């Protein structure tokens, strides 16, 4: 299927924005579970507690710092990298301001929130990385490590999540059961949806034109 370049760029930008909305709401969902938050959110909230800025604003600042560091390491940011840095924090703050997600009324509902949040983050992460406009600051690092080590997504992502978790905990970020669930579950969720989008590109000519999964097919466990 031949799609004009302008239309192709528009479709890929739509994929990015939809993915970032999903991730922003998923982060809000994880916080409203009241059982501890994901590793990066622990870090962002830990820094926010010492700065007076919102979690979304800290997310943008941290993303900008990673982009700058990556640039000096020879990794140039793409449009998806910059939009990731700007929009996820903005959509998270918008979700909070509009009250889209009510606080979980019980631990059981909180567990459901965590499960849904993990899947939504995996879906959004795999979707925007497959849109072909560049990965975000954190995911660019993940993809670079995958290509250098040939380790699976889950191993690289879990190692990254554990590192920022420790830093966030030292800064006073909220750690709990949800932190463990999200830190361990996010890598497999992203890997799951990479395979979903890979399958979609084999079934849909439009999807195969717009999307390109940036990692090799997951190898079955021995």
Explain this structure.
The protein is mainly α and 222 residues long. The chain has nine helices and no strands. The protein starts with a helix and ends in a 12-residue tail after the last helix.
Low-confidence stretches: none
Multimeric organization: single chain
Q: Domain count, please report it.
A: 1
> Rounded to an integer, what's the Rg over CA atoms?
17 Å
Percentage of residues in strands: under 5%
Kindly state the percentage of residues in helix.
Answer: over 70%
Number of strands: 0
Shape category:
globular
Q: Which terms would index this structure?
A:
single chain; 222 residues; mainly alpha; 9 helices
Condensed summary:
With 222 residues, the protein is mainly α.
Set down the secondary structure blueprint.
Layout: H1 5-32, H2 39-48, H3 55-72, H4 79-98, H5 107-129, H6 137-149, H7 153-170, H8 177-203, H9 205-210
Helix pairs in contact: 1-4, 1-5, 2-3, 2-7, 3-4, 5-8, 6-7, 7-8
């Amino acid at each position: 299927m031949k799609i004009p370049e302008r239309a192709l760029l528009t479709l890929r930008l739509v994929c990015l924005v939809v993915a970032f909305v999903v991730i922003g709401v998923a982060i809000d969902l994880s916080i409203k579970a009241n059982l501890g938050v994901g590793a990066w959110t622990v870090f962002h909230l830990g820094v926010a507690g010492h700065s007076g800025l919102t979690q979304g604003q800290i997310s943008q600042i941290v993303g900008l710092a990673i982009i700058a560091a990556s640039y000096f390491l020879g990794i140039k940011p793409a449009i998806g990298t910059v939009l990731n840095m700007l929009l996820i924090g903005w959509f998270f703050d918008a979700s909070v301001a509009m009250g889209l997600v009510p606080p979980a009324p019980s631990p059981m509902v909180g567990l459901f929130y965590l499960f849904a949040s993990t899947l939504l983050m995996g879906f959004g992460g795999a979707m925007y990385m497959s849109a072909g406009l560049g990965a975000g600051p954190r995911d660019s690092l993940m993809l670079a490590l995958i290509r250098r080590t040939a380790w699976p997504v889950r191993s690289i992502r879990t190692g990254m999540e554990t590192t920022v978790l420790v830093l966030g905990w030292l800064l006073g970020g909220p750690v709990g059961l949800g932190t463990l669930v999200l830190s361990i579950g996010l890598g497999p969720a992203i890997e799951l949806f990479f395979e979903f989008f890979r399958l979609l590109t084999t079934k849909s000519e439009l999807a195969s034109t717009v999307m390109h999964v940036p990692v090799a097919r997951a190898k079955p466990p021995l």
